[in-house]
Design brief:
The chain is α+β, with helices and mostly antiparallel strands. The chain contains five helices and 20 strands. It has two domains: 205 residues, putative capsid protein of prophage fold (Super Roll), CATH 3.15.30; 126 residues, capsid protein of prophage fold (2-Layer Sandwich). Helix 1 crosses helix 2.
């Protein structure tokens, strides 16, 4: 079974036997990461999973990307030769993984005479355990920043079928998952005018039905989740055609019953059956900060149609470099150098480095995740807000 990347976190987390923070402090950090309540809304990562083929030692990740194959095998006589299948639906995909590397300073002498809760004044000081307590919050901050970067990747895949790495660093190549362009075309008539008023001369249900039918024709996905940002949500729920369509006395064709926001940032809005296919609607207004500026994962007025089943999405990790041996000044609190948070696989490294001039050290975190759409044409998106 693949390890589900539930809430952005793979399972089977463990220490690296070849080197790591001391066992005591390392286990404290790992336990803390696993038990700490989520501090970010990571609903866009729900479709992505990590399995044994998700980890790579080099700078690039490789996947076989699969298109929908609905051909049927032909019946033949026992002596007939096998039909040759042209792998038109399979693409070899590779991309150089970006590096996300962060570090946070701390004073290596802080707390050196502090005892943990429950220790008697006469007990020996457990410097390694104290180190783990000192570092756990710093580790979580860096993990959450990296998870937000993964959320940005997911948002771009769902809205465009690509990840624009080059916009953040010109030296990186974009990841293009070769989705059919028509899955991301915007309709000419917008649900919401540029000034924010609702355009009543639109038919949102038809627009959604047409895009779902297109995805179904290309991939055979049979159930869907529709994510709406706040503007698209207003354009749908305040549209007179939609309200009239939902207000049926004898048969429930479309039901809107908004619920409170889930921990992953999605809020269930309602359910609609389109040509026998179940479609659940969610409001998603997740945000992050970039250089101090608040931004939304979904563009203003964006509608994203995702497969509830039938699509395959993976999170892959390229290799990370091991750091040099630990500085001598840290040997008394940490005799070894790093901790790897994915068992024996080099997916994430956390290590300590020092500045010799004073007692300041840096806890450093590096990971190289790339989110991948393994199956093609299983989702689509369009924008419903008119430009000013």
């Amino acid at each position: 079974m693949p390890k589900q990347y539930t809430n952005g976190r793979p399972q089977n987390v463990g220490t690296n036997g070849g080197g790591g923070l001391p066992n005591e402090s390392g286990s404290i950090i790992i336990d803390y990461i696993q038990e700490q309540p989520e501090t970010i809304q990571d609903g866009l990562l729900a479709l992505f999973s990590a399995d044994v083929d998700s980890f790579f030692m080099g700078d690039k990740i490789y996947i076989d990307q699969l298109g929908a194959d609905q051909e049927v095998a032909k019946a033949k006589t026992p002596s007939a030769k096998a039909d040759i299948i042209e792998p038109k639906g399979i693409l070899d995909f590779e991309v150089e993984a970006p590096k996300y590397s962060l570090k946070i300073p701390f004073n290596i002498r802080a707390g050196k005479d502090v005892r943990l809760a429950g220790q008697a004044p006469t007990d020996d000081i457990d410097k390694q355990a104290i180190l783990g307590v000192m570092l756990k919050n710093r580790v979580l901050v860096m993990i959450n920043r990296t998870k937000r970067a993964m959320m940005k990747q997911a948002a771009q895949i769902f809205q465009t079928g690509k990840i624009a790495f080059s916009k953040e660093d010109a030296g990186l190549a974009d990841a293009d998952f070769k989705y059919s362009p028509e899955l991301f075309y915007d309709y000419t008539t917008k649900w919401v005018n540029a000034d924010g008023t609702i355009n009543q001369n639109t038919d949102p249900i038809k627009d959604i039905r047409d895009r779902i039918s297109l995805i179904y024709d290309k991939s055979s996905v049979s159930e869907f989740d529709v994510l709406l940002d706040g503007t698209a949500y207003d354009g749908l729920l305040k549209n007179e055609k939609v309200l009239k369509f939902a207000d049926t006395q004898w048969i429930e064709i479309l039901r809107f019953a908004p619920k409170e926001m889930q921990a992953d940032g999605r809020a269930y809005c309602g359910t609609h059956f389109i040509d026998g296919r179940k479609v659940d609607f969610y409001l998603f207004n997740g945000t992050y900060r970039e250089n101090g500026v608040s931004k939304k994962y979904l563009n203003d007025g964006q509608v994203v149609i995702l497969p509830k089943n039938g699509g395959k999405y993976k999170v892959c990790f390229a290799g990370v470099d091991m750091v040099s041996e630990l500085d001598e000044s840290l040997k008394e609190v940490s005799p070894t150098r790093n901790i790897t948070l994915f068992g024996d696989r080099k997916a994430v490294d956390v290590w300590i480095e020092t500045i010799k001039e004073d007692n300041t050290a840096f806890l450093q975190f590096t990971s190289r995740p790339v989110l991948c759409a393994v199956s093609r044409d299983t989702h689509g998106s369009f924008n419903v807000k008119a430009k000013a």
